[in-house]
Amino acid sequence: MIFNKDTAEKTAELLLQINAIKLNPRNPFTWASGWQSPIYCDNRIILSFPTIRNYVRDEFSKSIEKQFGKPDVIAGVATGAIGIGMLVAESLGLPFVYVRPEPKKHGRQNQVEGFLQSGQNVVIVEDLISTGNSSLLAVEALRAAGANVKGMAAIFTYGFDVAEENFKNANVSLFTLSNYQNLLNLAVAKRYITEHEEETLREWNLSPSTWGVVGSGQ
Question: Among 51, 75, 138, 165, which is least packed by CB within 10 angstroms?
Fold first, then answer.
């Protein structure tokens, strides 16, 4: 669920302007999972644009406090959300920790890096939601450390049904600054894509794991 419709539209436009989101239905990208995709999102680019990163920071800060109440700690998911998570924590005057995909193999073997006390309320900041699997690993790690996870706030989600199901099963509230629906609406209105390309992008979103696969019917 998006925090706010106006924010969703503005965020989508900014991401397109700086090429954090690239749309290329005619020459699809290949994700690490092997999926063929007409869209590629790299929100880490936001950190290189001060005005835009400040906008994202401010929208996160006010929306998190409104939606979840002020937490005790902000947690960023490594590595993509460490930078923006730190900015949000600084804006709210809160401690910050980050969560690795898995514990370190050496030293203290931490998965949660930073000072976190059992029972503290935590809101997780994430840059991108696809299936939600990697994001929910951070939830598991924080809960294992004794944290009370109030919810997760992400910059963008593809809006896959599987992600919605995964978050529901994990009992985690997810809110985002923008999402796939708002992105496509904005991209057509601003002529980043044609209506025919929009149709292709909507078809992909319905079945991303089989789209572009020979014999899949896509």
Answer: 51
